[in-house]
Each structure stands twice: as structure tokens, then as C-alpha cells.
From TrEMBL:
Belongs to the bacterial ribosomal protein bS18 family. Keywords: Ribonucleoprotein, Ribosomal protein, RNA-binding, rRNA-binding. Residues 1-18 have a biased composition (Gly residues). This is Small ribosomal subunit protein bS18. Residues 1-24 are annotated as: Disordered. Binds as a heterodimer with protein bS6 to the central domain of the 16S rRNA, where it helps stabilize the platform of the 30S subunit. PROSITE patterns: RIBOSOMAL_S18. The lineage of its organism: Bacteria, Pseudomonadati, Pseudomonadota, Alphaproteobacteria, Hyphomicrobiales. The keyword Acyltransferase does not apply. The keyword Zinc does not apply.
Amino acid sequence: MAFGTGGSSGGGGGGGGRRPFFRRRKTCPFTGEGAPKIDYKDTKLLSRYISERGKIVPSRITAVSAKKQRELAQAIKRARFLGLLPYVIR
């Protein structure tokens, strides 16, 4: 049948006995010594965590911890409310 142990059948497990791709865990950029403080007035820092469409980038992409992501989202929303950051980028 089609379930043999052939060498080049394209399963999902990589080929040739190689190790699977290992992605290194990123650390939160807001923890540790010398880390920037999350502040709603620092629009340059906050704009790095906003997409081209004006949406807040999720923590799985930016590697920000859950606690700091909540602080970051609150700071972005506060800056938007005060007119320091735009709601939508056109």
C-alpha cells in the first residue's frame, strides 16, 4: 500500500535524520537592567509596537511578556486618547 517506510516520502518530519529547526526563545525587551520604561509620552517607543495599519502588535510576535504587554497596550491606548498617536494610519 502507500504506507511503506520509503526514504523520500514527503511527510512533515524533516528529512534525512536532521534535527528539527530550533527557534531560540526571545526575551522580553522591557525586563532586565537597562530596559526602557513603558511611558505613554514616549511615542517613538510605542510606535514600534503598532502595525502599519495602526493595530497593536501581539506579544507572540514582539516577545513582550504578558504583564508588560498589558502595560504597553494601556500606554498605547492612553497616547491615542490624548492625541499623541493616531488610531488609524492611512
